[in-house]
Amino acid sequence: MTDKPLGLTRTLRLPSVVLFGLAYMTPMIVFGTFGILAEKTGGAVPTAYVLALVAVLLTAYSYGRMAAAYPVAGSAYTYTRRAFGGHLGFLVGWAILLDYFFLPMAIWLIGAAYLSAAFPGVPQWVWILAFIAVTSAINIIGIKLANGVNIVLMLVQFAVLAAFVALCIHHLTAGPGLRPLFSLDPFAGAGGTLPAYLAGAAIAAYSFLGFDAVTTLTEETVEPARTIPRAIMLIALIGGGIFIGAAVVTQAAFPGGSFANVDSAAFDIATAIGGDVFVMLFLAGLIVAQFASGLSAQASVGRLLLAMGRDDVLPKAAFGYVHPILRTPVFNIALAGVVALAALKLDVTTSTSFINFGAFVAFVFVNLSVIRLLWLRSSDRGLGATVKTLVVPALGAVANLWLLVSLDEHAKVLGLIWLAVGIVYLAYLTRMFSRQPPETEFREVEDAPAARR
Question: What residues does the Amino acid permease/ SLC12A domain cover (predicted)?
């Protein structure tokens, strides 16, 4: 294992940074949650993505402002520490840990739902256990995913996604009962309401997770103050365009929100538009994407927990341990696998909403950090500065808070419990808040692939 800090060499340019962010987002996830969103919004999935994109773009702008002002490897955790101090920064970092820690669980649950639909004779829990066992074994052994493999995987995803959209268009325009290709019906749904659209948007935001991950590449990026803000906005716009476009076509071809199994609705749609041959290709593409995403997400959890253990944020004896032969954080990887067993008792809606709880908390504080650091501490009160560092981040904070409130009730309860545990642990670390919590330094860990979902 090396203790060399990240970012000694600036080699990444805008296209590479954008590709990293898009790879993290996993474009095919738009199909993984389509049935859930259709049911939630009453058949108005594109509207859910539009609302989620608005909140994401506002937050992406704030991330860009912070990355330009503080060009170091950072995240909501780093920005909140700078703006509001170590205690609140720790709690935002704790909320982010919720996002990372339970992300593999949601990824594997989505993959298991589709495999279960394809092979109904095999119980879903078998697929969940298989995902956990195989992925944990690979990560413990320490196999890296090469950049070339990631690029190939992205090309495969885009090819399957393009084929899915093309077949939906063919079904829409050539099938019985000819329907218009361009219509506002997919945005309205069947009598949908604003609360329903917002509830859908709160789930749709799951697809955007990772647009902010490129802030961790700041110290490895050429001209980061200029490149990172542009990359963040491009990732959000391109990802949003893919999600909205795919959702419009799919919802137009299959209106309404009723499916036999909402967790695997895209499987039924793929069967209807392409028959058995295409549905197998679609399933293979989706499962490979979910498997690779889960592999990287679990490796990232191991790296994050290792960094926190090394810096005494978490108990060093367990979380800071690296196997002397395998050179991997065995305990952390195994723990992530054990936590993922919660998928046996959760559905896709609750698990993705639970993860979004942590993301929305982080996004709110990124926006507030812009106001605190770049407006309140600045003497510039001109119209331009006020719009950029007060109005836009304030709108972003409100939008994300609104989505947070719109989450599934179970997810909000679980999220609040997670925060309560974090407050108790923070009190222990700081001797009842009498001192600053330890600060995590994220350094390179051998055999930990880049995070991607």
Answer: 17-371
Greatest mean pLDDT among 111-115, 242-246, 294-298, 442-446: 242-246
CA distance 107 to 297: 9
Q: Report the C-alpha gap between 395 and 163 in whole angstroms.
A: 37
Share of the chain above pLDDT 70, in %: 88
Which domains occur in the chain, in start order?
14-429 (1.20.1740.10)
**pTM (2 d.p.):** 0.82
Local structure of 5: helix, strand or coil: strand
How far is it, in rounded angstroms, from Cα 56 to Cα 64? 12
How many angstroms separate the most distant Cα atoms in the chain? 71
* 8 A C-beta contact, residue 107 and residue 294: yes
pLDDT in tens, 313-362: 888 888 888 888 877 788 988 998 998 998 888 888 888 888 899 999 99
DSSP state at residue 142: T
Hey, what amino acid is at 87? H
Q: Encode 53-63: b = buried (16+ Cβ within 10 Å), e = exposed.
A: bbbbbbbbbbb
Quick one: the chain helix, strand, coil %, rounded to 5? 75, 0, 25
As a whole number, mean pLDDT of residues 91-116 equals 87
Query: Residue 307: pLDDT band by 50, 70, 90 thresholds?
Result: confident
In DSSP notation, 285-340 reads HHHHHHHHHHHHHHHHHHHHHHHHHHTTSS-HHHHT---TTT-S-HHHHHHHHHHG
- C-alpha 404/C-alpha 413 separation (Å) is 12
What distance, in Å, lies between the first and last C-alpha atoms of the chain? 25
Hey, which residues does 5 pair with through a beta bridge? 443
pLDDT-derived band of residue 293, with 50, 70 and 90 as boundaries?
Answer: confident
95-130 residues labelled b (16+ CB within 10 A) or e (exposed): bbbbbbbbbbbbbbbbbbbbbbbbeeeeebeebbbe
How far apart CA 154 and CA 145 sit, in angstroms, is 13
Q: Which residues pair with 135 in a beta bridge?
A: none
* Centroid of chain to Cα 366: 16
Distance CA 181, CA 199 (A): 27
